[in-house]
């Protein structure tokens, strides 16, 4: 496996930009839209490191007065009027580049469209916007000889997007799999050590890792947006994020870590997509990860992406996938690329449909009011779908009126397992729907 860690600036391949480059008479003027966790870190790096060819000129945010900080020089314009900045001509003191760091589809999408329409290139970390409207926005940018860069949109500070575009364009990637949400990894890796779900989520919010609405993180919507971007760039298949079957981590509890440990595994939120028998399969959710897998070693906000290429084999990208400074590094790297006149490699992609059929082993946790015949009834429902049991695990010490136990099954088709679980869910002894998680095989 080849390891790529940290961040790198893509090599300039050609220069079709209509932007002034570093060698031009003045630096690129940069306007930040959004001065929150990532926006303030981008400002810090621009002002502390002074990357060549870049000048922070504007900061836009709603209710901007409360955002002012003394470490930003007086030359920077603070404003709460987005239109003024977007319409300001760059030949008359207006910005050359808009850095969108507010998040969400609207009004961020409109700012990006207006910026491009007014001749300004855009850098963004907004995975939701890119997952839902990236193709349209890239076409708008290209039509005007401008750039739309979003290296921070997947896996925060890890250069996965530049790595796919500049490092793996020569391969045919058949599979992409990994940990794409820092908040979920922060929560699950702390739960593995005995931490409490709600307390850890609150901590992730306080540290600026979570989305403005943390449901985006825990329900898997953030990871599925990132997976759809990766699927387009790595597998060259355009899929709508909402087509990806997605499961929340909220149903995972402490007992699942105990049973996972008995199986030499832990639990992580995994996003995976691949071509299987000519079909494109994609899924996001909590899964059992063998302790021997590098994915199990990730802690806190670490993300990890493993791509499998037809010619080059596995490549692993790892690092911090959330947090102001790591994410800002990716944003500033895009800006440095713009200032140096580098441009993205266009990776062609075509529309695809997501197959929901996978053939993988599963972990299923049942919570029952104990009575004779439950295991036989469950085994019968699985057998009717031709699903083979692998193991039955029952830890002692739980009350009989609320008993959690686990069955693992051999690789089986998703649709067959869903039919069996539907039948099992009707058993009167079941106190809650079974929790079903895929088990990663390596
Ligand atoms: N945080 C992270 O680790 C990562 C974040 N990202 C992405 O980066 C982007 C920014 O994230 P982050 O910095 O964490 O978010 P924050 O919520 O910390 O910052 C967003 C900023 O934008 C402002 N803002 C939001 N909506 C508007 C609006 N309609 N008008 C004016 N100002 C607005 C907010 O103002 P106010 O204070 O009033 O809410 C806030 O200052 C998002 O797209 C996120 O998904 C990507 C990778 C990692
Ligand atoms: N909320 C996201 C931030 C980075 O994309 C995460 O936790 O990964």
TrEMBL record:
Pathway: Amino-acid biosynthesis; L-threonine biosynthesis; L-threonine from L-aspartate: step 3/5; Amino-acid biosynthesis; L-methionine biosynthesis via de novo pathway; L-homoserine from L-aspartate: step 3/3. Its EC number is 1.1.1.3. It is an enzyme of class 1 (oxidoreductase). The keyword Oxidoreductase applies. It catalyses: L-homoserine + NADP(+) = L-aspartate 4-semialdehyde + NADPH + H(+). GO terms for molecular function: homoserine dehydrogenase activity. Gene3D superfamilies: 3.30.70.260, Dihydrodipicolinate Reductase, domain 2, NAD(P)-binding Rossmann-like Domain. The keyword NADP applies. Residues 363-438 form the ACT domain. InterPro entries: ACT-like_dom_sf, ACT_dom, Asp/hSer_DH_NAD-bd, HDH_cat, HDH_CS, NAD(P)-bd_dom_sf. It comes from the Bacteria. CDD domains: ACT_HSDH-Hom (cd04881). Keywords: Amino-acid biosynthesis, Methionine biosynthesis, NADP, Oxidoreductase, Threonine biosynthesis. Belongs to the homoserine dehydrogenase family. NCBIfam families: PRK06349.1 (NF004976). This is Homoserine dehydrogenase. It comes from Acidicapsa dinghuensis.
């Amino acid at each position: 496996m080849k390891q790529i860690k940290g961040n790198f600036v893509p090599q300039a391949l050609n220069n079709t930009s209509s932007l002034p480059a570093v060698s031009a008479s003045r630096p690129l003027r940069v306007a930040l839209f959004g001065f929150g966790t990532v926006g303030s870190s981008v400002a810090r790096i621009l002002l502390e490191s002074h990357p060549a060819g870049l000048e922070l000129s504007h900061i836009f945010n709603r209710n901007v007065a409360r955002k002012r900080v003394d470490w930003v020089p007086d030359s920077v314009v603070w404003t709460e009027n987005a239109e003024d900045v977007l319409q300001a001509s760059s030949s008359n003191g207006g910005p050359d580049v808009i850095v969108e760091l507010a998040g969400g589809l609207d009004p961020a999408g409109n700012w990006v469209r207006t910026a491009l329409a007014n001749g300004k290139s855009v850098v963004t970390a907004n995975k939701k916007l890119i997952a839902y409207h990236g193709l349209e926005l890239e076409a708008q940018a290209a039509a005007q000889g401008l750039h739309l860069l979003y290296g921070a949109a997947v896996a925060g500070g890890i250069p996965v997007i530049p790595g796919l575009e500049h490092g793996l364009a020569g391969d045919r990637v058949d599979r992409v799999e990994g940990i794409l949400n820092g908040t979920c990894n922060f929560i699950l890796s702390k739960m593995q050590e005995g931490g409490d779900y709600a307390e850890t989520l609150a901590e992730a919010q306080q540290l600026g890792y979570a989305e403005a609405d943390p449901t985006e993180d825990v329900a898997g919507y953030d990871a599925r947006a990132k997976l759809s971007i990766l699927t387009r760039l790595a597998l060259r298949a355009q899929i709508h994020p909402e087509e990806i079957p997605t499961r929340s981590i909220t149903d995972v509890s402490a007992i699942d870590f105990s049973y996972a440990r008995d199986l030499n595994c832990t639990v992580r939120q995994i996003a995976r997509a691949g071509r299987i028998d000519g079909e494109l399969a994609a899924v996001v959710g909590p899964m059992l990860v063998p302790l021997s897998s590098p994915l199990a070693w990730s802690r806190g906000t670490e993300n990890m992406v493993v791509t499998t290429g037809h010619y080059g084999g596995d490549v692993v990208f790892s690092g911090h996938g959330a947090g102001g400074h790591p994410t800002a590094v990716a944003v500033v790297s895009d800006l440095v690329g713009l200032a140096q006149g580098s441009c993205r490699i266009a990776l062609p992609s075509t529309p695809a449909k997501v197959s929901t059929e996978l053939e993988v082993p599963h972990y299923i946790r049942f919570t029952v009011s104990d009575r004779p015949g439950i295991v036989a009834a469950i085994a019968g429902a699985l057998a009717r779908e031709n699903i083979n049991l692998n193991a039955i695990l029952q830890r002692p010490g739980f009350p009989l009126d609320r008993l959690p136990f686990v069955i693992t099954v051999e690789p089986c088709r998703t649709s067959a397992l869903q039919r069996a679980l539907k039948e099992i869910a009707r058993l009167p002894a079941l106190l809650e729907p079974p929790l079903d998680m895929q088990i990663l095989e390596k």
